[in-house]
Amino acid sequence: MKELQYLNKYFIKYKYHFLTGILITIAAQIFSLFTPKLVSSSFKVIEEQAGKSGSMASDIVTQTLFHNILLIIGTTLFSGFLTFLMRQTLIVMSRHIEFDLKNEVFRQYERLTQHFYKQNRTGDLMNRISEDVGKTRMYVGPAVMYTINTVIRFIVVIVFMYRVSPMLTLYTLLPLPLLSYAIFKLSQEINKRSTVFQQYLSKVSSFTQEVFSGIRVIKAYAIEPKQQQEMDALSYESKAKSLSLARVQALFGPLMIALIGMSNLVVIYFGGKMYIDGDPHISNIGIIAEFILYVNMLTWPVASLGWVSSMVQEAEASQKRINEFLKIRPEIKNPVLHATPINGEIEFKNVEFIYEDTGIKALSNISFKVGKGETLAVFGRTGSGKSTLLQLISRLYDVTSGEVKMDGTDLRKVNLNDLRQNVAVVPQDAFLFSDTIANNIRFGNEDATIEEIIESAKLAAVHDNISGFTLQYETILGERGITLSGGQKQRVSIARALIRDPQVLLLDDCLSAVDTETEETILTNLLSYCRDKTTIIVSHRVSTARNADHIMVLDQGNIIQYGTHNELVDQEGYYKELWLRQLSEKELS
Ligand code: ATP
Ligand code: MG
Known about the structure:
By secondary structure, this protein is an alpha/beta fold.
């Protein structure tokens, strides 16, 4: 229960639901006890009048029975109504808590850094927020409700029974511990098998998910039969687990009936014996009927105890996993709450960066400076550290040693929200949401009007493509809609960055899938758009660097060349080779 204590704050938050629920439960239980009492009194009247003859006696019996039946119907309906209210308060409370907890977990996910996402698989993260929160809800909802219900019913029923006959009460309660133990054991077994079954289910679903997302590769390589075999094996196993679960589940009902039957027999045998022996507490046969009803009222709550305890165990395990995530503190924190204006002067000072999880040294001894409004073009072989460099500027990672400065201040002392607000990134692998094109662009600036969206799309040279779609900017992308080509995706992603109107624009090889002509258009557009913005552009094409103030060449995390285009074409090295190669390609084409 240690982990579940975390949820106490929610019980406090919803204390009125909780307390009302308890009061209603007490009332519902008291009302449900009228039935055994009325049955008992009916038997009593029948027994008393049975000896007598004449129409008088039969009239009395009919009248009393009619009266009692009406009362039983009335009180049962009312008790049913109260039970409905009990669910309305307690179960509704649990839904509120579930909602709050899901939001809390989601907020925490958003706060955590890339490092966290590399260490945890998506499936796992999804499970925390759906399955684990769902199991926790079973604790705050049904488990708490049944426990309250059981405890109150026990107290009320036993008080009622005790007042009639202490001795018979004892006999009646005798089989109950056996019942609860048997049910507990069975629930444990059910739980164990159901966990295994769940594991298989999630294996099947992650397998299918991967097949669906990789369907193009699977078809292209014609490996459908192999995938089918794997799927068959997985579903065969999960069927076996499901059958083994069904077998123990099937025992539950018969076991309950057998145990209830046993308790009934105990009451009939001992109650009957006490009645024959003239026990003063069992003055009429109706009391035995009353007790049989009590036993039946107690059996379900006792059975539910086993079930509740396994629910609580599961919730404890789930909450433990949730707490582990909630406790993680993001490594990248917002250091200052006051606003820091961002102008866009960027400086690296002896920066070294090592990816913690792989130990790869992606950057070493990097120093350079880009003034406000200047443009830097970054070149280098694949894996040389270009993307890493850009990620350090938007502070997706913190440097291992050295300093990255914005307007002369260490990034770790700059307001993170202001920084990210003023630095727009076009990542190397454009990511678009399954939403309309307009919304995908608006993502860069929530308040943007459609005119502004069109304006950015024009700058990114993608407006003509979008206009060609039937629904234009309202075209849905992704799974439910159309798939854009690689180059179109890149340009929508550029439009998203431009609409933000940032001080710093980081373009990570985002023109790689665009033909040279379109690239020219975009670069020309950017030239006027970026006049007062600091721009860093990663590229493999020399043409991109045409207007850059500085050019940097990276190799294995080190700067091997730095200067202007004219300076670098005069030096032997990577840049000159690239330039010559691309120049001759251009002449050939
Ligand atoms: P490309 O031109 O292919 O995009 P790049 O110059 O952008 O290459 P980076 O992505 O910065 O290269 O990678 C630099 C080095 O860091 C590589 O050796 C790469 O394997 C490693 N690396 C990149 N991202 C990560 C990461 N998230 N975790 C661990 N190592 C990484
Ligand atoms: Mg890269």
